[in-house]
From TrEMBL, chains A, B:
Its cofactor is FAD. PROSITE patterns: FAD_PCMH (PS51387). Residues 37-220 form the FAD-binding PCMH-type domain. Coiled coil: none annotated. Belongs to the FAD-binding oxidoreductase/transferase type 4 family. Pfam families: FAD-oxidase_C, FAD_binding_4. This is Glycolate oxidase.
Amino acid sequence: MSEQLLEALGREIPTDRLVTDVDVVASLSADDAEWAPVGKAAVALRARTEQEVADAVRICADLRVPVVPRGAGTGLSGGANAVDGCLVLDLSRMTAVKEVDADNLVAVVEPGIVNDDLKAILREQGLWYPPDPASAPWSTIGGNVATNAGGLCCVKYGVTRDYVLGMRAVMGGPAGYGNVVRLGRRTAKGVAGYDLTALMVGSEGTLGVVTEVTLRLRPAPRGVPRTIVGAFTSLVDAGRAVAEVTRRGLTPSALELLDHDTLVAVEDWKHLGLEADAEALLLARVDTPGVAGDDEAQGVVDAFETADPVFAVVSTDDQEAETLFAARRLAYPALERLGPVLTEDVCVPRSSLPTMLATLGEIGDRHGVKIGTIAHAGDGNLHPLLITPVGDDAARAAAQEAFEEIIDAALRLGGTVTGEHGVGLLKMDGLRRELDPLSLAVQHGIKSALDPLNIFNPGKVLTA
Amino acid sequence: MSEQLLEALGREIPTDRLVTDVDVVASLSADDAEWAPVGKAAVALRARTEQEVADAVRICADLRVPVVPRGAGTGLSGGANAVDGCLVLDLSRMTAVKEVDADNLVAVVEPGIVNDDLKAILREQGLWYPPDPASAPWSTIGGNVATNAGGLCCVKYGVTRDYVLGMRAVMGGPAGYGNVVRLGRRTAKGVAGYDLTALMVGSEGTLGVVTEVTLRLRPAPRGVPRTIVGAFTSLVDAGRAVAEVTRRGLTPSALELLDHDTLVAVEDWKHLGLEADAEALLLARVDTPGVAGDDEAQGVVDAFETADPVFAVVSTDDQEAETLFAARRLAYPALERLGPVLTEDVCVPRSSLPTMLATLGEIGDRHGVKIGTIAHAGDGNLHPLLITPVGDDAARAAAQEAFEEIIDAALRLGGTVTGEHGVGLLKMDGLRRELDPLSLAVQHGIKSALDPLNIFNPGKVLTA
């Protein structure tokens, strides 16, 4: 099959795009979800054009070969992991910015462009694409679209789906495998038929391969944001402070939490001079301009004060503020240094944050699992990172149990198994526990209708 | 069939919910799209509970009777118009606010609650549900969800889809006809499977019947908005002013346009003392608090000034400002007084607004059709209202031609046939012209998968 696939691809697609070297294929066969299983791909294609993507999908459909699309491979749920015998379709070389329309606040880009690279190009024109996953320096827009990536600023500015107006995608089923479909629009509003764009965003490559994205932009923010820092003697106090911010109707442009283990891990690695004694640090940002912004920043301090902080202040030192947010961005790699990380992505109603944080501590203690927690606290989106020593099978089993219990606890609080990382492989079981069985049946109905051959990233998100 | 349907419904549903009186059924058989065809319904059901909706759908599926859901009937595309032999499923009596969760900025409501009624209840708790279609005093949340309604403030705050976190709906197909499906979530973020909630919003009752909606709320706005008024000697100048507002990165919370005919129609009716001499009036609102808001309001004035206005000022008189926005809300009924109105809802990229406005004038002149234009100008969403004298068939034919030409002109500019009213019956042909045929095929694929019996509002949006 591998031979036949290669031959068919070679007839249509320049052979320098095809990767058959086993080690290179393997390096393109997994994302950053260290615990997710990885299959053995038949071949990888580093596509340069939409036509190459279309040809590849058509050929794979003919041969019933699974297609696993990938961007930079920074995913944390295994969504981009190879399945046996698949074609890995690497889109990271399709990086063109086809159009920036400043008058209409629209950009049209290829999926492989890196989030921060796009931001830099837009900044020169006074424009802004808000979604800012912590992976923004490396992750691609296509990957962000596939997982409906969130980030720090979505507490105020929304997630990827809120910025995708339209797209081109190579789809199958009713569109015919290997055909390019135009979805969505480029106007500010539109209700012409079902919102297929919103359906594709977050579908993790299971309904087709996105080859172009039309993005909604914002004017670049004006003025200087304020940073508010709060240190707490317990995670639960920090959770109370966050709940109070929401309750008071404040809308910071970021509201992040780092726990003690995370602070220590970052500090041990980078020596930034963090408040590593605290059990929890909250970092908020307020970008409202002028006096109203000053008032809002003070409002966040006041909300923090209700939860008995060690301190809560508006930072007056730009460098300090920058260091704190740098620490937030470094949290994941800092914890990864300590051992393989099993990443949670649960999201709970914001008022349940104190309860959820207390539960995390309880679960970690009971299973003897080290849990470093970072959180987009303002959204109720928690990333407990379960860390196990390399090669310790008992610890690994304990972590797996803790992982499942955390998901159940989040679901009991009215939460979801995944706030922004996607289902991929790691959250498939959680998804089944979260969704109403009938809703799951509808999900399957859509997958069957749009990919009847089940070749688009099969075995991800939904079970066959 | 009608007998059999009535009998079956009568076995499951309290008979006082059923309406068989021909005149009453007829009164429930059409929305406000005066030009759209209306079929003859078999019977109407004024549902009070989700169970009644579920029973009705199950029975209709068994008997292959079409189900046409409706709220207040304020739609402008014929989406709620009866089809022959259907059950009209009136949800306007399901008006409960089941929950207001101020801590998490979430409300759970039944579909029949009127938009403004919900707003009033939320205001008491310092909360806000932003979407504000001009029909807000009458239209229901369920209807707003069905059409993904927009409104005045969506230029800054987004449309209905942006505020729907989840729902309960009676669906069919993979879920089984007559079963209630829970979709979506109540957390701030979530990517657990395909976004079926976004798919249902704007699907105009063709995929199921929404029985409960979980809405995202915002804190009530603080401070007093400023109103900016600009009068222009041509529609094109007004369009240039709007394009300049966007180009400068300003984000007013409303940016509305009224043309001369509209101003005259409102003034003749209500005698508000409007600037009825102007060829076009722009109304903007800025709700940014404090000095930054003052600056932004002045920025809007400055942008208006670049387009040679008669005048452009920040209104200093609250009553004047209120009157101007009242005039905007009264525009549609004022024009309706002049004759049957054929309502356009095209949306173009904002920079194309001057061209589109010029084209409207040209089309109206060429066909001898009176066109009153109101527009959510800041979104590029235009409502040219084509008015014909009662009983003048030639004028009606001319208006129909002008209607189609306006759609084609919008599509040529990269626009859409419907910004916020939905496709219903009136824009079905336009939808076919707008969408990529393959995209249309995918739309049909979804409809077939989720409603294989084609009983949910058949013959709307997509042709059979």
